Amino acid sequence: MISIILPYPKDGTPIVGGPQDSFSGARVTDVRAAVDICHKATLGRIPLSLIGYSMGGIIAANMVAKYGWELRGRLHSCVSISGGISLWRRVDNPVSRELWQPMLAFEVKQRVHGPMVNRTGFSPSDPKWYDRPTDLYELDTLIPAAVHGYDDVIDYYHDMSACSEKYSNGGANIAIPTLLIHSRDDPIIHVEAGAVLPPTASKYLFSLITDNGGHVGWPQGWLPWKTGFKWVSETAIQFAETVALNWDLLDDAH
Q1: Which pTM was predicted?
Q2: Burial of 200 (0-12, 13-18, 19+ CB in 10 A)
């Protein structure tokens, strides 16, 4: 089995072109291309799993929702860890916006949006956007939602979401077994936005919600800094292996 791992976007990514070519959490074509490359390289003989963490999990779930049955025979399973399928929900979560998001926004400014603005000359509507403390909601409004032509930031969040009825048919088109792993105490993405399944969701979308675990956490044992990812990583691999071993049992009907 081969796993494609999608972490949160890192700095140093070789991006060229104008602002429209910059990072967008709603872009899924890059991941689809990676799946096709791996499928071609293995001649389709090795089970392929897509595993995403945080923003990577959002993009992974959104990709299987957007492409639906086109992925059958190419991708075997998908796991979204601390991602999100309904990101327009609970955007007013005070724990996230007032405490955690400003710190994340600072990192994203430094590593992602700041270099893009310097490289392309794009001018955000707030000239003090870089120096003024902001949360991710404000930053997404100023940069990616504006750059990529969305009506507003909520429209952008809908396009990022695997279960948006506006852009993804409520998740009904998902044809690849997909597992969402989320914690109720996630301080970044509220569980209602992250892993609560709507009635429109496909039968191939599953959700595993724990009481504790934080955001991409689930620390275990006396030395959590050594085993913090052990449980969630093993859970993702076990799901992928289970699907691969039982692939012939899946319904091929649309």
Answers
A1: 0.92
A2: middle
